[in-house]
Design goal:
Elements (H helix, E strand, L loop, with lengths): L2 H8 L5 H4 L3 H8 L13 E4 L7 E4 L11 E10 L7 E5 L7 E5 L2 E5 L14 E6 L6 E7 L3 E6 L2 E7 L11 E3 L10 E10 L5 H7 L11 E5 L14 E4 L3 E4 L15 E3 L3 E8 L10 E2 L1 E5 L3 E8 L2 E11 H4 L1 E8 L4 E8 L3 E7 L8 E7 L4
């Protein structure tokens, strides 16, 4: 029985002179804990989807089957490639253990498998959270002992009562597939993390746009997918399988050109865009693109609702002489959701989110881009 069948049954200072004005701020920030190096998208796993269905296979290990608590995280830019069905983002045999996938544009998960009548088992799927086509989206599925939770870009999309322990499987784990549902999405997957602890919403938000490169309590594995299938913090290295699977990074450019009506071009190489949303449903399409009020060489301002109602001021500063990084700073006068993407045309992207409710906090990311000079 496929996941589709089960569904029917169960149904993402240019120079020292310019730095001089912020040296005191830089020294103060240096005393703060440093953010990890700039997030996903150095390179990523690419999947052609149907009918090639390529994937990453990871040999079975008991650690890949957390039972008392569970968190799966990944950045995805995927389209469901199985018409009328579901595609696998990752899984360890959906009928026996855990599985995360996309059905249409909806995030679906199993954490205790699924067994048809006469086979036994108590698992079931849950659907909640929209994965917009053509957009890098962070997804997380969590089991905390009493609940299963879905998160989209750090927002809680759905929660359901769930009891433990979680069930296990001795089958290999796959990224971009599942041994019992070899249907890959088309698109890209990056920064896959598996935890044996239940990550809180605060923990998910605090690290979704930062790399994790060292062991942490409860962290089982991190597959950064930067041109290889290695687990960068442990022994769970993978290998490519199937066809239509590989790695890609966007080709570096020389300049971001000129500032446009919706895109800032800062320091000649950083393209900055923002989208805003008033709909409270996580992952739903944005209400609109932020518009540029005006811009200088390394800073600019966006508006959302009207040209006289300014929302976000952002700047990208050359801190290479201080900590070998480009810095991103922003301040906002809004409490609505927004997503701000900063792309270095030399080959890196970083995404920042503001969550609806309280006034937007400032961004002071002095470790944003390790792309000097």
């Amino acid at each position: 029985m496929s996941v589709v069948g089960a569904g029917r049954v169960d149904r993402r200072l240019s120079r020292w002179g310019r730095l001089s004005g912020i040296l005191l701020l830089g020294l103060a920030l240096a005393a703060m804990p440093q953010m990890a190096a700039a997030q996903p998208f150095g390179a990523w796993l690419t999947l052609a989807g149907e009918p090639t269905n390529g994937y990453v296979r990871v040999t079975h290990n008991a650690a890949l089957n957390p039972t008392s608590a569970f968190t799966f995280e990944a950045w995805v830019n995927v389209t469901d490639a199985l018409a009328g069905g579901c595609s696998s983002i990752a899984g360890k045999h959906w009928q026996k253990s855990w599985w995360v996938g996309i059905c249409g544009t909806t995030l679906r998960s199993y954490v205790k498998g699924y067994a048809p009548a006469g086979v036994g088992g108590t698992g079931t799927f849950r659907d909640k959270g929209v994965l917009p086509p053509g957009t890098w989206t962070h997804v997380a599925v969590v089991f905390n002992g009493t609940q299963r939770l879905h998160y989209i870009n750090g927002e809680l999309a759905g929660s359901w009562p769930e009891t433990g322990p979680l069930t296990t499987s001795s089958d290999e784990m796959r990224i971009g597939s599942d041994i019992a549902h070899n249907h890959s999405p088309s698109g890209a997957i990056d920064e896959v993390r598996l935890w044996s602890v239940a990550r809180t919403i605060g923990q998910i938000r605090s690290s979704l746009n930062k790399r994790i490169t060292a062991a942490q309590p409860g962290l089982v594995a991190v597959w950064s997918l930067d041109g290889n299938t290695n687990d960068i913090i442990g022994p769970h290295d993978g290998a490519l399988g199937g066809a239509g699977v590989g790695f890609l990074t966007f080709p570096p450019g020389f300049s971001c050109g000129a500032t446009t009506a919706t895109t800032l071009c800062l320091n000649t190489r950083f393209a900055v865009r923002a989208q805003w949303r008033t709909n409270p449903t996580p992952g739903t399409p944005p209400d609109g693109n932020a518009s540029v009020v005006g811009a200088g060489p390394d800073s600019g301002i966006f508006w959302f609702f009207g040209p006289n109602n300014w929302e976000i001021m952002v700047k990208v500063l050359n801190g290479c002489g201080l900590n070998n990084r480009y810095w991103v700073f922003s301040a906002a006068t809004t409490n609505v959701f927004y997503r701000m993407e900063v792309t270095d045309v030399k080959g890196a992207t970083k995404i920042y989110f503001n969550y609806p409710g309280p006034p937007a906090p400032a961004v002071t990311d002095t470790d944003a881009f390790a792309t000097c000079p």
